[in-house]
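Lab notebook, design round three. We kept the backbone fixed and only want residue identities now. Task for the bench partner: fill in a sequence for the structure below.
Input structure tokens:
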């Protein structure tokens, strides 16, 4: 059990750098949007949608790969707890303390990174 926890912590640490890597499509979209707030919001929504699509694929694979019903049930409960965290993550970027366009871009980067880390963890489950 301790070995699995240490492996998980190490995997999250190793993946953190990769999760922060900028999404090329997002960068191109933001460059094209300039200061257009609506366009920046669209770029942000698209980035998070891409991250969610990858998460859905990894989730289905991980759930299918579980060795039995108890493991599947535990993973479903874990995913629900993680989803609650995801929904509360990165909200500080949307506060009135940031200009709206800066907040939208920062929020998307943060939220997509949170989702990407979970996706990588779910992929890790299917690799073992």
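Proposed sequence:
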């Amino acid at each position: 059990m301790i070995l699995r926890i240490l492996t998980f912590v190490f995997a999250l640490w190793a993946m953190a750098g990769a999760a922060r890597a900028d999404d090329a499509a997002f960068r191109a979209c933001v460059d094209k949007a300039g200061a257009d707030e609506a366009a920046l919001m669209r770029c942000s929504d698209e980035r998070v949608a891409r991250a969610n699509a990858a998460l859905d694929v990894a989730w289905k694979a991980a759930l299918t790969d579980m060795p039995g019903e108890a493991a599947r049930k535990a993973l479903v409960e874990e995913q629900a707890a993680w989803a609650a965290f995801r929904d509360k993550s990165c909200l500080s970027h949307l506060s009135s303390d940031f200009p709206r366009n800066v907040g939208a871009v920062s929020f998307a980067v943060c939220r997509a990174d949170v989702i990407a880390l979970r996706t990588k963890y779910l992929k890790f489950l299917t690799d073992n």
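Keep this in mind before ordering anything: The chain is about 85% helix and 0% strand.
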